Amino acid sequence: MSTNSMSDPRRPNKVLRYKPPPSESNPALDDPTPDYMNLLGMIFSMCGLMLKLKWCAWVAVYCSFISFANSRSSEDTKQMMSSFMLSISAVVMSYLQNPQPMTPPW
Amino acid sequence: MEKPKAESWKRTPQTLKPRGAARGAMKTLPAFCVVLLVLWSVSEAKFDDFEDEEDIVEYDDNDFAEFEDVTEDPAPESPQRVVTTEDDEDEATVELEGQSENQEGDFEDADAPEGDTENEPYDDEEFEGYEDKPDTTSSKNKDPITIVDVPAHLQNSWESYYLEILMVTGLLAYIMNYIIGKNKNSRLAQAWFNTHRELLESNFTLVGDDGTNKEATSTGKLNQENEHIYNLWCSGRVCCEGMLIQLRFLKRQDLLNVLARMMRPVSDQVQIKVTMNDEDMDTYVFAVGTRKALVRLQKEMQDLSEFCSDKPKSGAKYGLPDSLAILSEMGEVTEGMMDAKMVHFLTHYADKIESVHFSDQFSGPKIMQEEGQPLKLPETKRTLLFTFNVPGLGNTYPKDMEALLPLMNMVIYSIDKARKFRLNREGKQKADKNRARVEENFLKLTHVQRQEAAQSRREEKKRAEKERIMNEEDPEKQRRLEEAALRREQKKLEKKQMKMKQIKVKAM
């Protein structure tokens, strides 16, 4: 038995299950990028829709892509998809209302 | 057939009979209209005659009598008139005078050469005035002809949509980078696990658990939290409760991050957190690592800031390279920790070690609460923390993961070492004093808050009691409860008075 315990440190009777760390405020503290980008994306897409600015709508699409790439697995996909759809609809609506090509701001 | 016609005819005068007066009016009305028409046409002709006296002059038979062909004369003059009327519409009144002058000139020219006008419809002399006209108009107007580009939306070419094409290309590039980055991170994680699997399985019963299965069986694979974070939980070993390994790769799936890293290179990291059993680790706080990392940890971590108040010291005394520094609660701990094997590990793999942190008072980073200090000390756990940098500074390849295997050996060794290392009596006393001191400080800071909390609790109790008394329907019971509450309050007051008296006596 002693040789056993010397050579094999494993103890099957001491197995503890994995407990995911409590995520009250930690996710937001660790990396707020996806949340910020989500919010920015929504703001830009609303601006693009209301003010009929094409560049706003395009920036919103980019923001939602960045938010998706940085998202945590704990975040639900519904919010991601909704921000995606909103930004794409902003782009489509801007072009339907005004099919002219985008003019650069400079 | 005729009969109905005759009848219809008969009917019409019958129907018209009652409108006798209207009949008379109907007869006179057409005649009146015809007279009006004739008068109007005559007046028009007369006005036409009076519009241009020059025209009248032209159309006089006497003028045309000089020429053989009458029809040719109006022809050349009509285009002139057409041109002049057009000019009248476009240009200012100044031109009208010029036109009138030209017209007179034309007529003079037309009158003189009889033969020429017959053969040539347009005489050179006729257009003399016209050379001046464009010059005068241009000099007076100064309106240059500018060639304007056709607006973009009217062009039917893809080139005008170059910005949109740029945007879509950017999006496609982002998506490509996402796929490539995700795959690379996944390959790196798998390579790490394949390299370390054997060592882990020989040390732990349970390798890989996501907490969802009913039974505690090894999943044998990493738990993907993110596109760049992978977890692995190992448990079932002497002295430790479990070990959580977190592979924190760079965000290769985010193009913005990739571009930012080109400016400032960062490494992938492997974070290992070993939770020790209470009986298997003595009470001490100790850290070793790069100076920068230690400074940051000292600021962030609750236990390091409270127990290791000194600045990170150099480890040269123990044979460590200059890049590494030591933070310790007391010298004895450092002496005990820095044995030969540990020094060997630290020296050989100094470039891969970011920080090593042993603590019995570990509670995570400092919590910044808005209301002020938390009312209770945070829960502590005996923990060993290791943070390693993957070699390559971002440009990692799967084969680089093999270089981390010796570090895992160091972790295992540290677990056993922490279990074996015990403070002597002095050290233990110091450690206990330190902990008591920290707790006292904490209590002092929170004294005010705790008092307030206690007061609010007391008030709540009183309110609850009063409510109970009010809610009691039976007046007798109410009276009794009220009396009981009064008695309790009196007792409290007496107690307070006694205490004050005692304090006064002591002070005296």
Automatic annotation (TrEMBL), chain A:
GO molecular function, one term: protein folding chaperone
Record keywords, A-Z: Membrane, Transmembrane, Transmembrane helix
Main subcellular location of this protein, as a coarse class: membrane
Gene Ontology CC: one annotated term: endoplasmic reticulum membrane
Region (Disordered): 1-32
Location of the protein in the cell: Membrane
Ribosomal protein is among the record's keywords: no
One Pfam family per UniProt: ASTER
Lineage top rank: taxon: Eukaryota
Family: Belongs to the Asterix family.
Free-text function comment from the UniProt entry: Component of the multi-pass translocon (MPT) complex that mediates insertion of multi-pass membrane proteins into the lipid bilayer of membranes. The MPT complex takes over after the SEC61 complex: following membrane insertion of the first few transmembrane segments of proteins by the SEC61 complex, the MPT complex occludes the lateral gate of the SEC61 complex to promote insertion of subsequent transmembrane regions.
Protein name as annotated: PAT complex subunit Asterix
Gene: WDR83OS
TrEMBL record, chain B:
Keyword Transmembrane: yes
InterPro entries: CCDC47
Composition bias, Acidic residues: 85-94, 103-129
Pfam families per UniProt: CCDC47
Keywords carried by this UniProt record: Membrane, Signal, Transmembrane, Transmembrane helix
Keyword Ribonucleoprotein: no
Sequence ranges of Basic and acidic residues compositional bias: 1-10, 130-143, 455-497
Signal sequence annotation: 1-45
Cited PANTHER family: ADIPOCYTE-SPECIFIC PROTEIN 4-RELATED, PAT COMPLEX SUBUNIT CCDC47
Entry protein name: PAT complex subunit CCDC47
Organism: Erinaceus europaeus (Western European hedgehog)
